[in-house]
Specification:
Blueprint: H1 4-11, H2 15-23, H3 30-43, H4 49-56, E1 61-65, H5 74-90, E2 94-98, H6 103-111, E3 118-121, H7 131-136, E4 141-144, E5 155-158, H8 160-173, E6 178-182, H9 186-190, H10 194-210, E7 213-217, H11 223-236, E8 242-245, H12 251-260, E9 270-274, H13 277-281, E10 288-290, H14 294-309, E11 317-320, E12 324-325
Helix pairs in contact: 1-2, 1-3, 5-14, 8-10, 11-12
């Protein structure tokens, strides 16, 4: 069994320094802290959880709040959860997953207990009722998502506004003048969920700037709803040649509905999506897409939280730039 003295010898420090790095009771230089943590990981050292908690007044547990509300693409959300759990274990922390839609009550219940040291909050709304409470807590937090007022908060996410605009720019660059966005379910917009609202805003702004014809159409996350919407769009707008899909469960249904209506992809209608790369790559045809970097966002959210727990300053806002990968579903507009 690896002991604290083994870690100290490996890192070239005293056992007390290793103890201080684990407990956070004294300020240790970033370089020394890095060496100790590297040695801990390399040797596989695992301090006794009870002794560690007594020494540091910490539980070494993070709370991850994911309210599984209607309209949420659960497989995509769980990619974030897996990334958070994996990154937390690298920092010798466990994760308490909270999935009930408890809002402020659930947040207060966890914060008032000794269960967790810090919190990661997902499914952030523009006017999120949890935000005032997060500002008042004595535990650090990181939001995956941005409310309208992000003052005094630490937030990280994909730049969804730029993602929506970038998809429009891609289609416009291929000569498409009449486009549409098949968006998230109506209840997601009704809740003013931040990521959905920002994609729609980015899409609309780029359409205006480019002088295109285009609008946003919420869509239930069901194949029948997608087929009905595609049929209505083609009937009302026969000149439609470009579609952005920001609704992961219906991406395949949209392409299928276009084909069923006699529209070839991409010869007649180009399709671009905001979705995980794996989903885009395995579609038929493979979809031009902006990737949702769940693994990177989850990992960096944990790293921000670890820095806050150690008293290290962190940026208030981290926006990851979108990357659009062109695949077989988009092509120049037919003349």
């Amino acid at each position: 069994m690896v002991k604290i003295t083994d870690v100290a010898r490996h890192a070239g420090v005293s056992p007390s320094t290793v103890s201080y790095v684990l407990s956070g009771k004294r300020s240790i230089s970033a370089e020394t802290r890095r060496r100790v943590r590297d040695s801990i990981r390399e040797l596989g050292y695992r301090p006794h959880a009870g002794a560690r908690a007594l020494a540091s007044s910490r539980s070494n547990v993070l709370a991850l709040m994911i309210p599984l509300r209607s309209g949420i693409a659960v497989p995509v959300v769980m990619r974030f959860a897996v990334s958070v759990v994996t990154a937390a274990r690298r920092h010798d922390h466990d994760v308490l997953l909270l999935t009930q839609e408890e809002g402020e009550d659930g947040l207060r219940r966890v914060a008032d207990s000794a269960l967790v040291d810090a919190l990661i909050v997902m499914d952030v709304q523009m006017k999120d009722p949890r935000v005032p409470l997060l500002r008042s807590l004595d535990r650090p937090s990181v939001l995956i998502g941005f409310p309208a007022d992000a003052d005094d908060l630490t937030c990280i996410d994909l730049d969804f506004h730029a993602a929506g605009a970038g998809c429009v720019e891609h289609l416009a660059g291929l000569g498409h003048r009449e486009i549409a966005m098949i968006g998230s379910p109506p209840e997601v917009y009704a809740r003013q969920t931040g990521y959905a609202r920002r994609v729609a805003d980015g899409f609309a702004e780029a359409v205006r700037t480019r002088g295109l014809t285009g609008d946003v159409h919420p869509c239930e996350a069901a194949p029948d709803a997608a087929r009905d919407l595609v049929g209505r769009l083609l009937a009302e707008r026969p000149g439609l040649t470009g579609v952005l899909v920001h609704n992961e469960p219906v991406v395949g249904s949209v392409v299928g509905a276009l084909r069923a209506a006699g529209r070839r992809v991409p010869e007649d209608v180009s399709v671009v999506a905001i979705c995980p790369d794996e989903m885009a790559e395995h579609a038929e045809p493979p979809l031009s897409s902006v990737a949702i970097p769940a693994e990177e966002v989850g990992r960096r959210a944990v790293e921000l939280l670890m820095s806050k727990l150690e008293g290290v300053p962190v940026p208030a806002a981290t926006l990851l730039p979108p990357t659009l990968t062109r695949r077989a579903s988009s092509a120049p507009a037919a003349v």
